[in-house]
Amino acid sequence: MLGVPIYPGSQFIASYDAGRGQRYYIFGSTATFVDLVAFYRTVLKQRGELVYDVPATHEFDVGKYREETMAFPPGVTIKDFQSDVSQGLPNPKPGGQPARFPTVIQIVPVTER
């Protein structure tokens, strides 16, 4: 449905209106940042780009960005939410397991516009 595979075992957290008819989708994962980046490098057949060292954030482009019709470029972003000051993104589901997600995946699907 989103045009890219979802890392196995990831949990859907939420989707948001990105504007201009686009949505982005957030998934939490217990996998490490390194494992997620390796998975998406393999399935997307590209290296992507490390855009921030801290917190580690890696982006993969998956479609053409049209500034005049899109709010965000289509892509997959992996963000490391675990650090010295954070055990991860809290699970928004009350009592949900895991209690925190060390890594988060953001997907902006390709839209035909």
Walk me through what this model shows.
The chain has one domain. The two termini are 17 Å apart. The chain is mainly beta. The radius of gyration is 14 Å and the shape is globular. A 6-stranded antiparallel β-sheet has the order 1-2-8-5-4-3, covered by helices on one side. The protein has one helix at 33-44; strands spanning 11-19, 22-29, 49-52, 57-61, 75-80, 89-90, 100-101, 103-108. The protein has 1 helix and 8 strands, in the order ββαββββββ.
Write the layout of secondary structure elements.
Layout: E1 11-19, E2 22-29, H1 33-44, E3 49-52, E4 57-61, E5 75-80, E6 89-90, E7 100-101, E8 103-108
Antiparallel strand pairs: 1-2, 2-8, 3-4, 4-5, 5-8, 6-7
Quick overview:
With 113 residues, the protein is mainly β.
Q: Could you say how many structural domains there are in total?
A: 1
Strand element count: 8
Fraction in beta strands: 35-45%
What's the helix count? Answer: 1
What composes the largest sheet? 6 strands, antiparallel
Mean pLDDT across the residues is 94
How far is it from the N-terminal to the C-terminal residue, by CA? 17 Å
**Poorly predicted runs of 5 or more residues:** none
Structural class: mainly beta
The proportion of residues forming helix, as a percent range, comes to 10-25%
Shape: globular
Give the strand line-up of the largest sheet.
1-2-8-5-4-3
Rg, Å, rounded: 14 Å
Order of helices and strands: EEHEEEEEE
